[in-house]
Amino acid sequence: MNPKSPAAAPAATAAPPERHPSAFEPVTLVLTIVLSVLGALIGIVLITSLGVSPNTAVIGALVAMLIGRVPVGMLRRMRSQHRQNLVQSAISGSTFAAANSLLTPIAVPFALGRTDLVWPMLGGAVIGLAVDSWVLFRVFDSTLLPATGSWPAGIAAAETIKAGDTGGRKAAILGVGALVGLVGALFKLPTSAAGVGFLGNIWALLMFGIGLTAAQYAPDVLHTDLLAEHVPHGMMIGAGLVALVQALLLMRTRGGQAPVHAPGEERTVEAPRLRRGLLEGMGLFVCGAVVVAFAGGVAGDLSVPALIGWIALAGVAAIVHQLIVGLAAMHSGWFPAFAVTLIFLIIGLVAHIPTVPLALLVGYTASTGPAFADLGYDFKAGWLLRRDATPWHPFEMDGRRQQYLAQLVGFGVALVVVAVAWKTFFSDGKVPPVAEVYVTTIKSGLEPGTLTTMLLWAVPGALVQFLGGPSRQMGVLLATGLMVATPQAGWMVLGALAVRQLYTMWRRRGITDGAAREESDEQAENELSLVGAGLVAGSSLNDVGQLTKAL
Question: Which of 56, 63, 58 is CA-nearest to residue 31?
Answer without folding.
Answer: 63
